[in-house]
Recover the amino acids of this structure.
């Protein structure tokens, strides 16, 4: 009954049988999971890596149908969630920077916004500041909005440029006009 060919041909029947067996023998599964935790986690990671789109879609649907659970879980595990987020930020500083810019763009603009990698903009501008025209090393560069978000600009590829930190902070939310 449990051959792979039979399970493939009778998928729903096999699932129903498995559900019934797990419901009547919960101690077996709890004991197995605790004894083989590492293998269970590895197999779960392999499954998610192989079925990434399916996993993302499942998680999206679950969050949409259970919004209260997520808020309650986060509130109950606030310290743990903050610690995880801080460690993620420390391990991924470039992604953190991009996420912050994207969040700010979503809040400030009503129009379109793109996920912009500052390194791609720096390469596009050949490393030259769009405000003063001098070369700026990537580590010292800022992402400047030609038309600031506060003035109705968008966070899109055509509205951003590389700039020095001092130039961008001095410009603030002004629009530079070529005379």
């Amino acid at each position: 009954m449990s051959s792979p060919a039979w399970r493939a041909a009778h998928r729903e029947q096999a699932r129903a049988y498995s559900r019934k067996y797990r419901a009547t023998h919960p101690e077996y599964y709890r004991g197995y999971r605790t004894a083989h935790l590492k293998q269970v986690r590895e197999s779960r990671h392999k499954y998610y890596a192989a079925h990434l789109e399916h996993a993302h879609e499942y998680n999206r649907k679950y969050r949409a149908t259970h919004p209260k659970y997520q808020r309650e879980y986060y509130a109950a595990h606030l310290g743990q969630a903050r610690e995880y987020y801080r460690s993620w930020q420390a391990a991924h500083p470039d992604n953190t920077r991009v996420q912050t810019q994207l969040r700010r763009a979503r809040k400030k603009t009503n129009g379109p916004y793109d996920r912009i990698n500052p390194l791609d903009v720096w390469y596009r501008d050949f490393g030259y500041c769009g405000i003063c025209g001098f070369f700026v090393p990537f580590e010292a560069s800022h992402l400047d909005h030609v038309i600031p978000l506060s003035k109705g600009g968008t966070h899109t590829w055509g509205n951003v440029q590389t700039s020095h930190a001092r130039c961008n902070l001095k410009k603030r939310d002004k629009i530079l006009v070529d005379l």
Remarks:
- The chain has ten helices and two strands.
- Residues 4-65 form one domain.
